[in-house]
Backbone:
């Protein structure tokens, strides 16, 4: 399946990673109030100076495939950890920090929002890795056990149908 990358504009033939460009809380704020209440960048989000989020990558191993399948997701952070991240944005010498997954991955029938997660910082201008806490949630199981390439494409197709219908 070929697709045009929204980041670089190039056409690719390989498996795409998926991502959310804002945490789910963004959608709960009325549109007319978002500009006053939310400070959003491609990597951070602050809501009402009380709720702090960082964007990272949740990777799922793919069996017999040379790379993992990535989801760009948001994770809440307590103020102190968020500030530490901002002050050490390009460092792998901080964390890991606990947070709550703040992105609903619609492929999974059980809500992924508010799953416990750890944020592992990698430095080198690379987004942090997000590790969902071990549990029986299907996302946690997929991250621990890996998935087939067929399932990865199933997730992509499901997500693309959702995007196209909005």
Residues:
């Amino acid at each position: 399946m070929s697709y045009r990358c929204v980041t670089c504009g190039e056409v690719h033939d390989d498996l795409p990673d998926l991502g959310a460009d804002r945490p789910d809380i963004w959608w709960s704020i009325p549109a007319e109030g978002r500009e006053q209440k939310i400070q959003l960048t491609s990597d951070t989000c602050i809501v009402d100076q009380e709720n702090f989020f960082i964007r990272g990558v949740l990777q799922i191993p793919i069996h017999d495939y040379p790379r993992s399948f990535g989801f760009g997701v948001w994770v809440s952070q307590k103020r102190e950890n968020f500030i530490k991240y901002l002050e050490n944005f390009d460092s792998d010498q901080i964390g890991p920090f606990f947070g709550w997954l703040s992105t609903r991955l619609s492929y999974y029938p059980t809500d992924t929002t508010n799953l416990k997660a750890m944020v592992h910082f990698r430095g080198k201008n690379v987004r942090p890795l997000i590790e969902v806490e071990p549990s029986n949630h299907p996302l946690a199981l997929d991250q621990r056990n890996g998935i087939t390439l067929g399932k990865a494409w199933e997730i992509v197709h499901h997500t693309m149908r959702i995007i196209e219908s909005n």
